[in-house]
């Protein structure tokens, strides 16, 4: 638990109406009306913004989110446990790794989706149910789970989410228009008018929820989950002509082929047509996040107007990242590379130091415990993660490893993550990552090992040069984490741990005509730690 809790908010005698943002009139929010004082409460409010496929390289186009980085804490080593929407969201809700939720894909046909989540009764035991038990009013707007359906006007209420007092959820809001929302058990259809743009509808409903909950003096948890910047990358009409000359970032790994790549990754090339396509996709992705940033600005303005900003945590993140040209891969995700699994985690709120950089290894398994800690809610010991709240106050977490899991699958036409320019899908794998190295083991027996100290771009696979003894140690550690269950078990498996036998690697001579890489005659030379 946090050592200090935020004391009662001093009621203001009056609150001046605030302008939501410069383009507010265009997106149906001209100003935020001051609603007056809020009944004092020791429990803080929580606003959780969970974006869809937002890579770290998009934050620079989001001034409000960038301001949050300056005002609060940023987690520099935050990773998701699966770089696919539904498995990651299942982990966020439950605090459990995919091997424990058993939600491994987006659709029931391939071993995942909403019906797997609900069928295993995972919806009965989430951070939302935790907070409800200690008096929180909960609300969720936007995307819930892949394959979730809002219902029909003639058959409403069949897919009402457990743990939420209010909701406005869509089955498929990816296009931004012409969708239907399950709004507290009633289904409403939205059209193609500018004011129907889904992110704006979410923003307006979220502001209304805050206004009412604050006026009632009840602590609240609000999750805002836009369907963007997920493809088909549809921006709000007011943004569709911006950044016309922008191109996908030409990072140092853009268009580069990995050395000693596994079969699925080998021989990837970026053609002119694919490069042009990705540049257009990137422009669209940037345009879509502009409305998300405006939503965050409007929500923050409403918190101020309602007199609860000083007692509210805002958490901003994404369910997974996205690659666009790195490793010569066309647009997509599902890999264990940094582009796909490292996402923003930014927190502002009471007692969060401005500009704090948290270097500890963190995962989306930790969000449920973090929310519970902030709210003073008990979290089951079956949860795999732990609270991150002490970290922004100078605490530390004894964790060396984070796990990434993935189930390879055939293309399911019902899965929104398929498309014409579809990135190759890796076969089944599990991976462990530290600040020093990345190890990936595929079910077909192939492996990847990257020395992140010497190869931060993850381009040179040196698995073939690591000793058999070291490989056995890595496999043992990987298996230990893949089989862990519960906070104690997973905490032990991911901790620095006891020393293991000395590690050695077999040196190998470079092939003729190639440049010699650092030899792996010692753990230090290979970038390997000397202990587990």
Automatic annotation (TrEMBL):
Pfam families: Sulfatase. Residues 44-377 form the Sulfatase N-terminal domain. The modification 3-oxoalanine (Cys) is found at residue 85. Keywords: Glycoprotein, Hydrolase, Signal. Residues 1-26 form the signal peptide. SUPFAM superfamilies: Alkaline phosphatase-like. GO terms for molecular function: N-acetylglucosamine-6-sulfatase activity. The conversion to 3-oxoalanine (also known as C-formylglycine, FGly), of a serine or cysteine residue in prokaryotes and of a cysteine residue in eukaryotes, is critical for catalytic activity. InterPro entries: Alkaline_phosphatase_core_sf (IPR017850), GlcNAc_6-SO4ase (IPR012251), Sulfatase_CS (IPR024607), Sulfatase_N (IPR000917). The keyword Signal applies. One of its GO terms (biological process) is glycosaminoglycan metabolic process. Belongs to the sulfatase family. This is Sulfatase.
């Amino acid at each position: 638990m946090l050592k200090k809790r935020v004391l009662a908010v001093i009621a203001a005698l009056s609150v001046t109406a605030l302008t939501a943002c410069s383009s507010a009139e265009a997106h149906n929010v001209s100003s935020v009306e001051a609603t007056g004082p809020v009944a004092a409460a020791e429990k803080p409010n929580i606003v959780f913004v969970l974006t869809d496929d937002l890579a770290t390289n998009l934050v620079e186009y989001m001034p409000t989110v960038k301001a949050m980085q300056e005002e609060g804490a940023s987690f520099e080593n935050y990773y998701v446990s699966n770089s696919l929407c539904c498995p990651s969201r299942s982990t966020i809700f439950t605090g459990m790794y995919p091997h424990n939720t058993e939600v491994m894909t987006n659709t029931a046909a391939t071993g995942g989706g909403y019906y797997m989540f609900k069928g295993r009764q995972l919806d009965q035991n989430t951070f939302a149910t935790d907070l409800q038990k200690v008096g929180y009013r909960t609300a969720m707007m936007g995307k819930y789970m892949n394959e979730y359906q809002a219902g029909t006007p003639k058959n409403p209420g069949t897919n009402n989410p457990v743990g939420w007092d209010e909701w406005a959820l869509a089955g498929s809001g990816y296009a931004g228009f012409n969708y239907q929302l399950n709004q507290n058990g009633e289904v409403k259809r939205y059209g193609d008018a500018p004011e129907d743009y889904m992110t704006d509808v979410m923003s307006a409903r979220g502001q209304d929820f805050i206004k009412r909950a604050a006026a009632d003096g009840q602590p609240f948890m609000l999750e805002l989950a836009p369907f963007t910047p997920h493809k088909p990358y549809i921006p709000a009409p007011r943004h569709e002509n911006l950044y016309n000359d922008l191109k996908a970032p030409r990072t140092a790994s853009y268009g580069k082929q990995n050395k000693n790549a596994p079969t699925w990754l080998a021989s990837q090339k970026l053609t002119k047509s694919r490069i042009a396509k990705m540049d257009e996709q990137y422009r669209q992705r940037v345009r879509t996040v502009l409305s998300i940033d405006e939503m965050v600005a409007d929500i923050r303005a409403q918190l101020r107007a309602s007199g609860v900003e000083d007692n509210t945590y805002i958490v901003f993140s994404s369910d997974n990242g996205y690659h666009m040209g790195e490793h010569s891969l066309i647009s997509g995700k599902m890999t264990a590379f940094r582009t796909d699994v490292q996402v923003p985690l930014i927190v502002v709120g009471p007692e969060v130091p401005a500009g704090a950089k948290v270097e500890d290894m963190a995962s989306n398994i930790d969000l449920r415990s973090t929310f519970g800690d902030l709210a003073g809610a008990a979290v089951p010991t079956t949860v795999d993660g732990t609270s991150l709240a002490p970290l922004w106050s100078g605490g530390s977490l004894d964790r060396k490893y984070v796990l990434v899991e993935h189930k390879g699958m055939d293309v399911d036409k019902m899965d929104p993550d398929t498309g014409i320019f579809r990135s190759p899908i890796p076969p089944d794998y599990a991976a462990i990552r530290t600040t020093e190295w990345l190890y990936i083991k595929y079910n077909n027996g192939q492996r990847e090992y990257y020395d992140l100290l010497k190869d931060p771009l993850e381009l040179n696979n040196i698995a073939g040069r690591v000793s058999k003894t070291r490989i056995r140690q890595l496999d043992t550690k990987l298996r230990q984490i893949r089989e862990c269950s519960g906070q104690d078990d997973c905490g032990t498996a991911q901790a620095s741990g006891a020393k293991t036998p000395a590690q050695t690697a077999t040196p190998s001579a470079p092939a003729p005509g190639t440049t010699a890489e650092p030899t792996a005659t010692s753990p230090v030379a290979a970038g390997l730690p000397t202990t587990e």
